[in-house]
Amino acid sequence: MVPVFLISCPLHSFGPWVQWFLPLGWGGAFRSEWACACPPPGIGCDDYLGSDKVADKCGICGGDNTGCKVVSGVFKHTLTNLGYHKIVEIPEGAIKINITEMSKSNNYLALRSRSGRSIINGNWAIDRPGRYEGGGTTFTYKRPNEISSTAGESFLADGPTDEILDVYMIHQQPNPGILYEYIIPEANIISPQLPPHRRPGEPFNGQLELTDGTDHEDENLQRETDTHTGQSTGTFPVIQPGRFPSHQPDNQVPAVQPPRRNREHNWKQVGTTECTTSCGKGLRYPIFHCVNRISHEEVSESYCDTSTKPTPEEEACNIFPCPAFWDIGEWSECSKTCGLGMQHRQVLCRQVYANRTLMVQQYRCHHLEKPETTSTCQLKICSEWQIQTEWTSCSVPCGVGQRTRDVKCVSNLGDIVDDEECNMKLRPNDIENCDMGPCAKSWFLTEWSDRCSAECGAGFRTRSVVCMTNHVSSLPLEGCGNNRPSETIPCDNGPCVGKVEWFAGSWSQCSIECSSGTQQREVICIRKMEGSFDVLNPYECSFLERPPSQQPCYLKPCGAKWFNTEWSTCSKSCEGGFRVREVRCLSDDLTPSNQCDPQLKPEEKEPCNTQDCIPEIDENCKDKYYNCNVVVQARLCVYTYYKTACCASCTKVANRQSGFLGRR
């Protein structure tokens, strides 16, 4: 029969306690266990059951938020230079640290200690989001997805810090604002005292504290963090069985332990658990089973006293480093909103050791192919400029005017869209100047005909003369002035001989090579003699009908011919200038044409006055000294005294230099 004792529960348990006496083996001994027969109440921050106390923002159990100072602000300074800029200083002992970028940007937050050690994003290397240890605390670095989120970067840490830390911003674009906040506890609560009812080694606010009797092995244990996943995988010191006396009710009857020599079963280590990692320093724990002391045969754990079962202690395993690997960051936004652009991502060589992901030299990843850090991207096809019409006619008949055409921005679907959709730097011109030539009136001339109107004796050659403006219209002769160039010029092919009769020579060629003209022939009075004839005065043949000496002729339509103006005045009087004239191709009706032979086009520009210029001699400009050549060689002519004393030599050199510069 199992005896049961009932006692009242503690003040905050709201029910009775029940004490059970259970048989221990077959020796008639019992062990006791206490249990509360009511539902377990809540535990406050003061470790009392049923307490409703909570920690305030200063971390004080049951506090009223007056035991600390909250420091907060927004860094909105306008920055101009690219690179690292200090934002705020986090003092030693700060807790509840929050550094947050107010909106997404291409800037980065950075953190380093006062000693200069980089904690996050140092030395122009951007770290991946995760957890990073520094300043005696662990910072959680967050960088939201660069495409789908508008939130900025942030650093968060519970603290307290054990040194001064500096927060920086890697400035690359306008500062969107950096919110910073941290709490500074008062000096008397930085190291709070233990509550009176706590015993050494018991938890306080979820933390475990060690007393002076703690083994040094436990003190050296360090909490380690995986910077890639942000999950805590470290260990904390644990209380070893029997190190501190158990907390038992005052009226509890201690269990009677049987003598060790009477035990038939005990705990034995039969192996270990598998290592938590295959490389990079993992953990494993010993496995204890209940066995027969004599046969060492495994039996049910109920045969062994669970209170004597050894607590498994962790041990390191697979401490060799893991192979290095390429850590691939997220792609940046495309550099262009349309068309072919570029995007970048960070590729770092990392290696896992002791549950921490460390950045190492890139040669450690040479056994792996490095992923691309840049890639082309295209969000959409850009719109493009299209020329809708040809150029219009010039706005003026002569002189300088303008002409236009339609230029539109067209999307890839063929729709006309706003000009802002296209690249304004590549927009074709839709208006330009046009030069229709000078508006002045001029005489236009053809070349002289090649043949004389008479085969012998006096005759003449002809040419065409036209007065025109730039838009090629026939004008009255006074339109170009009274100095009309001559249309004929005399010619003589030598004397003619004959007999007393009218002798008519052959008709000459037509006075012009095309269109309507005249033909000439010589009609003379001659006296024929045997083998020769003499030319007589015309009255000697007056009794004879005189043949006509001129008749009209028409060969063919002229078509297009070259017309040109007179040469202009030479641009220089010496040392080579040029003169110009205007040349036009005109058809039979004196309208512009493009049917003229380009090889026969008269020259529009030619050199003139190529002779050297002769400087004027100034009788008052003479050399006063025989050695003025030395003054010239020493380049002293720039001084007034030497320029006057050696006037001729200095002037000669100046004219030579100006002529050289002009020829260049």
Automatic annotation (TrEMBL):
Places the protein is found: Secreted, Extracellular space, Extracellular matrix
InterPro entries hit by this protein: ADAMTS_ADAMTS-like, ADAMTS_spacer1, PLAC, TSP1_rpt, TSP1_rpt_sf
Region annotation (Disordered) ranges: 193-234
Any single Pfam family the record assigns to this protein: TSP1_ADAMTS
Gene Ontology biological process: elastic fiber assembly; microfibril assembly; proteolysis
Molecular-function GO terms, alphabetical: metalloendopeptidase activity
Domain of life: Eukaryota
Keyword Signal assigned: yes
All copies of domain PLAC, residue ranges: 617-654
Keyword set, alphabetical order: Extracellular matrix, Repeat, Secreted, Signal
PROSITE patterns from the UniProt entry: PLAC (PS50900), TSP1 (PS50092)
GO CC annotation: microfibril
Gene3D superfamilies cross-referenced by the UniProt entry: 2.60.120.830, Thrombospondin type-1 (TSP1) repeat
Stretches assigned to coiled coil: none
Name the record gives this protein: Thrombospondin type 1 domain containing 4
Highest classification ranks of the organism: Eukaryota, Metazoa, Chordata, Craniata, Vertebrata
Gene expressing this chain: THSD4
